[in-house]
Task: inverse folding
């Protein structure tokens, strides 16, 4: 356990130092977040105060929806970028010769990529509240539960994207497909109840729509764990199903890449 | 219990615990490795065709503790594939690779704990980390104890001749400095098997000489060293044994007695692979050959 923590700290330190030394990159990420917030703020104003999706004001509705969506996509993309870069520089092959088992190494790297995106999400939400005056009513416990379950699902998506990258060199295509599909179907911009029935059912099959629902309930309506039991149970079921599946697929793809000599193919 | 019959001796240490001593640290047994090439799905425009490359075909050898083995052979002969198979970057299609009694296919983690590799790829580091930070990162993944790490990093930086550049970002390194950093990384976990792929390709003469001394010292301490090289002088200077690979087959496995010169190895090489040796004196036109131009 100590050794795993030690490795996680080494990976976090590597990613933090790399991010800090790419000063313009960090500045541009935060500038992008503020621009996005401003765009949604004025969109909500243009639509007017009469629109209350799910019983909340539209700007806070957008703030949480786009924040959680961006967190899912950005963290999976950040992890995938790290894997692709490691393939291109030959670092991935060398990392696979260290004493750390390959699957463990990739999961620790994913956790680090997700920690960075979590910071972005917190900055995004705090700026939305502090600068753009989004009205919130938080239940901290249900927020923590929803966040942990969402993290497990986001981690699974990131690991699956890395698996597709290692097996088929097409991780970016998977992220693009998920990104464009989920933008439409996850309730990021409007409630999924507005969709035609078949599309609504499809939206209900996407774990991101439950993550967004749960975070909205916890952050905007102050709903407790018990009043969100169904949504949280659905999130937990997705997490329990997806995480072992993603880890199994990753182990298989790494073994296959070792057999075929394609660890560094990109 | 794992197959531990690789010429092992059982000793008892001071606590009366069993300690295995491997006379042969590394076993490569009838190893075959084939790379299959599949063309792209919609490949109507390009001329890429499918096929396969036999990288190694039934290659067998072993290497003992304290032995330095030079792998010689032309490009594509299977030298790097051999090193990658030992490091578990690749898995064999047939045959077995064992390090310290552990099979690379079934006990990959145990094999990796014993093997350090310095690859020929220069840029396999994190460019925005310094040499020290890169080594600290890899040491953590190689499970070097947290308290021991700073001292160990200092040692390998000195051994690789990078003490002065320890806090320089890797992105500012020259090819030679990258190569030294690769060696430092390979040494950080005290490997019992050290794999070196063209380790002196970008080093200057002084650094090369220091490197040869270091390799000898590591072998004296008990490390098995496998050295893939195109440099006959290097093989003659440091190796105890020579493996000559050609088109995935092992053509020669010969002990060196320390009296062979680079020219002897060059002659052997060209004779065994069946290519004509170009006389170095006639390789350049008279007008640009420095010695002749001077005369």
Result:
């Amino acid at each position: 356990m100590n050794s795993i923590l030690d490795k996680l700290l080494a990976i976090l330190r590597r990613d933090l130092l790399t991010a800090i030394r790419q000063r313009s990159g960090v500045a541009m990420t935060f500038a992008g977040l503020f621009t996005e917030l401003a765009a949604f703020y004025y969109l909500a104003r243009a639509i007017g105060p009469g629109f209350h999706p799910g019983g909340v004001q539209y700007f806070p509705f957008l703030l949480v929806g786009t924040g959680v969506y961006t967190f899912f996509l950005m963290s999976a993309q950040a992890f995938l970028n790290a894997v692709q870069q490691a393939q291109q520089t030959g670092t991935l092959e060398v990392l696979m010769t260290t004493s750390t088992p390959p699957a463990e190494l990739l999961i620790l790297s994913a956790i680090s990529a997700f920690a960075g995106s979590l910071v972005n999400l917190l900055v995004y939400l705090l700026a939305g509240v502090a600068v753009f005056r989004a009205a919130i009513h938080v239940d901290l416990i249900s927020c923590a539960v929803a966040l942990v379950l969402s993290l497990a699902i986001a981690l699974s998506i990131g690991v699956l994207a890395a698996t597709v990258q290692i097996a088929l060199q097409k991780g970016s295509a998977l992220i693009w497909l998920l990104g464009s599909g989920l933008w439409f179907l996850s309730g990021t911009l409007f409630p999924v109840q507005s969709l035609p029935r078949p599309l609504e059912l499809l939206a209900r099959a996407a774990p991101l729509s439950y993550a967004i629902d749960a975070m909205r309930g916890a952050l905007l309506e102050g709903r407790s764990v018990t009043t969100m039991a169904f949504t949280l149970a659905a999130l937990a079921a997705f997490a329990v199903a997806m995480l072992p599946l993603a880890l199994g697929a990753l182990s298989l793809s790494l073994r296959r890449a070792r057999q075929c000599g394609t660890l560094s193919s990109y | 219990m794992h197959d531990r019959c690789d010429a092992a001796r059982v000793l008892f240490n001071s606590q009366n615990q069993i300690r295995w001593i491997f006379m042969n640290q590394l076993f490569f047994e009838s190893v075959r490795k084939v790379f299959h090439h599949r063309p792209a799905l919609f490949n109507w425009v390009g001329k890429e065709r499918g096929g396969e490359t036999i990288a190694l075909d039934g290659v067998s050898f072993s290497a003992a503790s304290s032995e330095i083995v030079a792998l010689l052979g032309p490009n594509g002969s299977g030298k790097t594939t051999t090193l990658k198979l030992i490091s578990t970057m690749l898995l064999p299609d047939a045959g077995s690779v064992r390090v310290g009694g552990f099979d690379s296919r079934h006990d990959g983690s145990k094999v990796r704990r014993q093997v350090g590799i310095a690859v020929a790829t220069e840029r396999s580091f994190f460019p925005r980390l310094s040499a020290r930070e890169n080594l600290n990162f890899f040491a953590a993944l190689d499970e070097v104890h947290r308290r021991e790490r700073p001292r160990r990093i200092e040692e390998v930086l000195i051994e690789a001749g990078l003490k002065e550049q320890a806090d320089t970002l890797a992105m500012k390194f020259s090819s030679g400095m990258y190569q030294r950093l690769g060696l430092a990384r390979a040494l950080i976990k005290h490997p019992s098997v050290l794999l070196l792929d063209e380790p002196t390709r970008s080093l200057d003469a002084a650094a090369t000489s220091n490197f040869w001394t270091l390799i000898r010292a590591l072998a004296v301490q008990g490390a098995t060293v496998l050295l893939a090289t195109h440099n006959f002088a290097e093989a003659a200077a440091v190796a105890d044994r020579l493996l000559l690979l050609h088109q995935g087959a092992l053509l020669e496995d010969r002990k060196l007695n320390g009296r062979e010169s680079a020219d002897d190895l060059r002659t052997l090489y060209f004779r065994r692979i069946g290519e004509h040796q170009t006389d170095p004196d006639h390789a350049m036109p008279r007008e640009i050959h420095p010695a002749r131009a001077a005369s």
Summary: DSSP finds nine helices and twelve strands in chain B.
